[in-house]
Model the fold of this input.
Amino acid sequence: MSVTTLSTTPQEVSACGTSPVDVLDRAEADHRAALLKALADPVRLQLLSIISAAPGREACVCDMTEAVQVSQPTVSHHLKTLVDAGILTRERRGSWAWFRLDVEQLAAVRGFLA
Amino acid sequence: MSVTTLSTTPQEVSACGTSPVDVLDRAEADHRAALLKALADPVRLQLLSIISAAPGREACVCDMTEAVQVSQPTVSHHLKTLVDAGILTRERRGSWAWFRLDVEQLAAVRGFLA
DNA sequence: TGTCAATATGGACCATCGTCGATGTCGGTG
DNA sequence: CACCGACATCGACGATGGTCCATATTGACA
Done:
């Protein structure tokens, strides 16, 4: 097979002697980064720990505002961030809002971190 | 057992009827958030995908600058972020810098995401 | 309908982040 | 020693993020 075929053939080697490999495409990288970004905050991790430890893997906002050292609007903001990312789901029951873990979404994150 | 014992007893129930649970303490939450933050960027995920797919799970900077659509200083900056977080290790060989995955650190992240 | 409690939204402020161009540093080679 | 290529650092800029207070919305209930 000839060496001088096409400039687009992935058969070349770079300066340090290795052959270039495939990169995760940007769209998928953006999607994964958005998920990780939603998780990458200490208060949100605390909120998730509450929900994760609660019976039925769901918790009410009033429990969380008491357990975390930020204001109620800030808790609401963080919960919205997690819902928008698909990590939590929100359900209204009477006066209270309940949040439940989406375990599949979390499993997906663990998956691409392997 | 009396109901009016002490205000610090964790036996109370909150407004919505559940009993408060333990929260992940703030220091540990900060540590985990720092790790996730280091991972939560599309370019860094692309860099990690290159290293992860390379033979020996290590790659040279020159390969990465070619594969990603940002400038060389930006690649260097992202690699430093990952090294500072303990996700990558840097090793100098001649003119080139090689980066290797710390698989245990990544496993730890997957661990607390369970 | 009016009021209250629970939650969400809007606006503002300060800190941090991602990116770049310019430049510095270090190793190899003539 | 001088030069060159690989990589790191610096300084700056615009964008995004976390937080708060004030206020709006929603649902229960008198």
About this structure: The CA atoms of residues 44 and 78 of chain B lie 6 Å apart.
